[in-house]
Amino acid sequence: MIHLKPNATIDDYIKNFPEEIQTVLEKMRAIIKEAAPADAGEAISYGMPAFKYHGMLVFFSANKNHIGFYPTPSPIVFFKKELAAYKTSKGAIQFPLGKAIPVALVRRIVKFKAKENLEKEMAAKKKKTRK
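Now predict its structure.
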């Protein structure tokens, strides 16, 4: 990961990079924003751009050779076959720089994670009211 000075906003984060990387980061941001529920919020968390929706939704970052996309482990397991062409780890996906971001796949992952977050919150509230 590229080490950067602390950022207050996603715009601040993106401004730290060369123009060609800024373009890719803005595209990633737009894809996530379009796929996320309208009331999802933007944040900087762990020094990276993030979206919140009933908890952390997804993170993304620029790295030396790739854009990192961090949806947590469950979407990576669920979309394992579709992610076979990309380097993944427990909670991260690497989209190589110089190749197109798989827009439809990123959208599906964001929607999956948003639904999962909402379901987890509703289950927790239900459990809490039973006590």
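The radius of gyration is 15 Å.
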